[in-house]
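Input (structure):
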């Protein structure tokens, strides 16, 4: 399929209206209704957040970790939409997740790093997403393989899903690194040359794995002209049930966003 270079999609429209990088914030995981609503109210108060994220189904590396509250959390996200007034996004890993999320009015879905690695899983998702019209964000695979990331985007495009964004969350490496997942910036840059029509969003939370790295990683992404940032936000980060070391309060998120220097956008 020929994909035009400039596409009119959910994400490109948001970018054109805003004229600034998109900002996505919310907890790693939805834990309780109160925690979801407190986070949503906190990030909404910042005035510049475009989309609320929360993991409901959490594919964790090892069994025994918190694997998400499951579908009981979907009505909490509905309250974020209707009572707080932010569109919401969740991670989906199976066609059943897609169906349940869409039944509950979730606005945007994303495919996580542990799913992007599996072409059969991505194909099943592409088939389930076809014709739904829901925008989809695709995280890079956990391993530094840009072809797998590109392959996932191609599977979605071939299924007619063109409302796409790519999320750079870093790559696992065997060698010790200051990062939780090495950014390996040349890989997302290579993806962008192959998919110039797909907005590229940086996830400094999963790249850094530590609160103090959020600012420098986010700044680097903005310097490279990324189209957006996704930053994990929790009202009580130290007690978060997943990714506690990397989450920040909504107030701290506001400070980080204020400290960032924005380039004049090229498009
Ligand atoms: C997440 O966004 O919380 C998550 C699990 O991310 P990733 O798929 O990038 O590991
Ligand atoms: Mn997380």
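Output (sequence):
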């Amino acid at each position: 399929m020929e994909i035009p270079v400039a596409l009119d999609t959910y994400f490109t429209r948001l970018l054109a209206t805003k004229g600034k990088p998109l900002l996505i914030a919310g907890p790693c995981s939805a834990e309780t209704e109160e925690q979801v609503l407190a986070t949503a109210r906190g990030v909404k108060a910042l005035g510049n957040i475009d989309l609320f994220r929360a993991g409901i189904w959490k594919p964790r590396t090892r069994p025994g970790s918190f694997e998400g509250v499951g579908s009981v959390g979907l009505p909490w996200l509905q309250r974020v939409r209707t009572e707080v007034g932010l569109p919401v996004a969740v991670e989906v890993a199976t066609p059943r997740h897609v169906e349940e999320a869409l039944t509950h009015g979730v606005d945007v879905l994303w495919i996580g790093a542990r799913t992007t690695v599996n072409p059969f899983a991505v194909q099943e998702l592409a088939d389930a997403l076809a014709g739904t019209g829901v925008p989809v964000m695709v995280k890079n695979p956990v391993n530094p393989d840009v072809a797998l990331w590109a392959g996932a985007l191609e599977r979605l495009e071939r299924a007619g899903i063109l409302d796409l964004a790519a999320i750079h969350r870093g790559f696992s490496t065997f060698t010790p690194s200051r990062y939780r997942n090495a950014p390996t910036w040349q890989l997302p840059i290579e993806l962008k040359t192959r998919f110039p029509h797909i907005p590229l969003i940086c996830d400094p939370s999963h790249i850094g794995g530590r609160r103090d790295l959020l600012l420098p990683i986010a700044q680097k992404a903005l310097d490279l002209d990324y189209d957006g940032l996704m930053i994990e936000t929790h009202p009580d980060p130290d007690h978060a049930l997943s990714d506690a070391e990397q989450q920040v309060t909504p107030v701290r998120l506001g400070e980080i966003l204020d400290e960032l220097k924005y380039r004049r956008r090229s498009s």
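Notes: The radius of gyration is 17 Å. The chain has one domain: 13-259.
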